[in-house]
Amino acid sequence: MRALLVVAHPRRDSLTAHVADRVRARLAAGAEVDVLDLHAEGFDPRMTAEDEPDWSDPGKAYSPEVRAHMARVVAADVLVVVFPVWWFGPPAILKGWIDRVWNHGFAYGPSSLGGKRMRWIGLAGEPEDTFVRHGMSGLVERQLRDGVSRYCGIDDVELTMLHGTLTRDDPGPLVAEAEAVAAALV
């Protein structure tokens, strides 16, 4: 089995990076793991004309950078994305990666990523009740589960939200929950 672990945080000393490291270690117990650290690899999340979808041409040749990322997605049996939740959504670099790489003719349209398994692990600073109070509960899940994964043919998809990362004295239970997600995949 091959896993693609996507990490979307600018600091290697962050809780998000720590969780990603632990998830990688768990995945490595039963899978070959390709770590795609969007910041460390210098991924540019800005859409370019070369990577903009052409609805009349699903066979459009995208940029070499995007084609290389597409190849990594194709090579994976399971996709795990670890990211901070900022403003009740994924950070810009992750959204840009989805916009540029999960493109028409590759991830949706005449093609799809069906048959893959996907796990999203979001780390939210606020406790869950803050999401509920502001009417944002379930928003991130619906966007990533339905608007991205299922739209692209991935039916085996789950989002684990690790809430309250800024208010906990001990992040150990959050890390353990993320490790359990990874352990269940291998």
Automatic annotation (TrEMBL):
Domain of life: Bacteria
Keywords noted in UniProt: Oxidoreductase
Domain Flavodoxin-like fold: 1-180
Entry's family note: Belongs to the NAD(P)H dehydrogenase (quinone) family.
Protein name (record): Flavodoxin-like fold domain-containing protein
